[in-house]
Design goal:
With 229 residues, this protein is mostly helical. The protein is built from nine helices and two strands; from the N terminus they run ααβααβααααα. It has a two-stranded parallel sheet.
């Protein structure tokens, strides 16, 4: 199946390359708007953004454009494969797609409007109370917000994905419970990587929502399996 999909995408290689280049330039232009929005919405009044190099802002826009282009190309590739394979979505598929879209929207709103503002505010408060001026480099601050928002939004697909796998018989509730410690360790590791200056406070604030989401996923899968039985 994977080989067939790659073969289908190979026929549209030129289209994907052209689309990727066009999307990259569009996203590079929009990156300035994204940076301005993040600065106005999330940067505390006590903090200041600075650039430590001549190319830092330009490199930041290139990074944002590359990330958004990659996500857009994955979606475009999936659409091309579906069209080429003459895939007709069934009612159940539409339900799963609708649930995924709803979870992505909820995840983005909660992450950008609740989690990130509180995280940035607390970390800045800890800095200023220690008598240290809060100066953040524009690349470090914006990429922290951008990557965190992207990863946490995608993580809200976890309940839908695992529920679907459970219905397919791939994973069960007992497996999820046994893998708790592995998930917790992976969560702490990921938050340490995406946090520019990992501290116990920052890791706790970023890890806690993911751990809660995982536990809610176990409850959801238990409910789904009970209804199915």
């Amino acid at each position: 199946m994977l080989y067939r999909w790659l073969a289908l995408l190979r026929r549209h290689l030129y289209l994907l390359v052209a689309a990727g280049m066009a999307l990259f330039f569009i996203f590079y232009y929009l990156a300035g708007v994204i940076v301005a929005e993040i600065r106005s919405s999330l940067l505390p009044a006590e903090a200041k953004l600075i650039a430590t190099g001549l190319m830092e802002y330009v490199v930041l826009k290139l990074q944002i454009a590359a990330l958004l282009t990659g996500v857009a190309l994955v979606v475009l590739a999936a659409v091309l494969v579906a069209l080429r394979a003459h895939y007709v979505p069934r009612a159940s598929s539409l339900v799963w797609l609708s649930a995924s879209g709803a979870m992505l929207l909820v995840g983005f709103v909660l992450t950008y409007r609740v989690l990130l503002p509180q995280t940035v505010k607390v970390l800045t408060l800890l800095t200023t109370r220690a008598g240290v001026m809060a100066y953040y480099t524009v690349g470090q601050f914006v990429m922290f917000v951008f990557v965190t928002a992207l990863l946490f939004t995608l993580c809200f697909l976890l309940p839908v994905l695992i529920a679907w796998l459970a219905l397919q018989g791939v994973v069960g509730v007992d497996t999820l419970k046994r893998r708790r410690r592995h998930f917790y360790l992976a969560t702490v590791t990921v938050t340490a990587i995406i946090t520019a200056d990992p501290t116990p406070v920052s890791q706790l604030m970023l890890s806690a929502p993911l751990i809660i989401l995982y536990e809610l996923t176990i409850l959801l899968v238990s409910l789904v399996m009970r209804l199915r039985g």
